[in-house]
Amino acid sequence: MQNIDWGNLPFGYFQTDYNVRCYYRNGQWGEVEVSSSPQISIHMAATCLHYGQEAFEGMKAYRGKDNKVRLFRWDENAKRMQRSADGILMARPPEQLFHEMVSKAVSLNKDYVPPFGHGAALYIRPLLIGTGVQVGVNPAKEYMFLVFVTPVGPYFKEGFNPVSIQIASDFDRAAPQGTGSIKVGGNYAGSLKPTERAKAEGYAAVLFLDAKENKYIDEAGPANFFGIKNNSYITPKSTSILPSITNKSIMQLAEDQGMTVEQRKVPIEELETFEEVGACGTAAIITPIRKITDRKTGKTYEYCKDGKAGPVSTKLYKKLQGIQYGDEPDTHGWVSFVQ
Ligand SMILES: Cc1ncc(COP(=O)(O)O)c(C=O)c1O
After folding, report:
1. Are residues 140 and 24 in the same domain?
2. Is 183 part of the annotated catalytic residue set?
């Protein structure tokens, strides 16, 4: 194994030793297979290549001070993958198969789970693709479910330092009655162009608005959005955003510490009133936001005026990471171990 600079890992692909695969054929899932090749071989008419029959998940394994390796709410990822499969008519991997394959992929690559103390983790990428052949627009009859892992640092290079993001009202991420609430590749393809433009203009991500009225906040690139004011944690409710497992967990933690939690429409104008705002997700963890600029109007909203994350975001971040790495008691039963 190569020497890895654990403290400076990007959020990117890093080859590990094994991945785990399972095939759905003749109406059933087969045996779990282990591969040491990063390549897959599929038919050129596979539906994942033409009609977007592709869904994925993103989760992490965390190594604690005690050297134990923890998964965080894997069952929520398994359920979300099933919803994604249902949403685009793919075969759903059973929860137990999901758990077996995720655990196996982590366990076989245990040396790549970053040591405690670097803010790094082993990112787990379950992937479900239509491999069956179709030329007309139809769902496949065969699927491949694969899990690979890769050690990562924080998604935004700023880590827990505040980032700037851009409202891009000339692009929609997903349609209100479309596939925005499931984790399918097409949603991400649609976000590439505005995101690359935002990066070129100096922003870390795009803040998407609701596609119907362009009035309400949807989500922040590959993360949910939240705002904090008057001891309330406020996060958008929308049919076109991905229900984030991190956000769901933070809502619980906010409630545990006596905050009011509001999941509702968040109009753009409300940005003026927040004391703190941030993005949250498995990859982003909690990323504080220091500036939001509306590209169309030029209007700018500023937070973290001292250059640091706000006190509420900091407290929630510490609590969440504390549970994930095993420093805080797991009072909600969110953590399980990989042997
Ligand atoms: C579009 C989008 N929103 C939100 C999230 C955050 O979700 P989670 O906290 O489950 O990782 C992700 C990442 O999975 C995402 O891709």
Report:
1. yes
2. yes
- Residue 283 corresponds to which amino acid? A
Percentage of the chain modeled with pLDDT above 90: 96
Q: For residue 128, how far is its CA from the centre of ligand 1 (angstroms)?
A: 17
| Domain end residue (candidates: 122, 152, 182) | 152
- The domain in which residue 20 lies consists of 6-152
Read off the pLDDT of each residue in 66-83 and give the average, rounded to a whole number: 98
Given a contact cutoff of 8 angstroms between Cβ atoms, the answer to whether 198 and 168 are in contact is yes
Ligand 1 centre from 281 Cα, in Å? 5
pTM over 0.90: yes
Question: What is the distance in A from the centroid of ligand 1 to the CA of 83?
Answer: 14
Residues 4-33 have pLDDT tens digits of 999 999 999 999 999 999 999 999 999 999
Pocket test for ligand 1, best of 173, 240, 242, 247 (most atoms within 8 A of CB): 242
Considering its fold, how many domains does the chain have in total?
A: 2
Identify the domain boundary among 152, 177, 206: 152
Nearest CA to ligand 1 atom 14: 58
pLDDT bin (cut points 50, 70, 90) of residue 210 is very high
Question: Quick one: which H or E segment has residue 77?
Answer: helix 74-87
Which residue from 19, 6, 14, 18 is spatially nearest to 117, judged by alpha carbons? 6
Q: Is 130 helix (H, G, I), strand (E, B) or coil?
A: strand
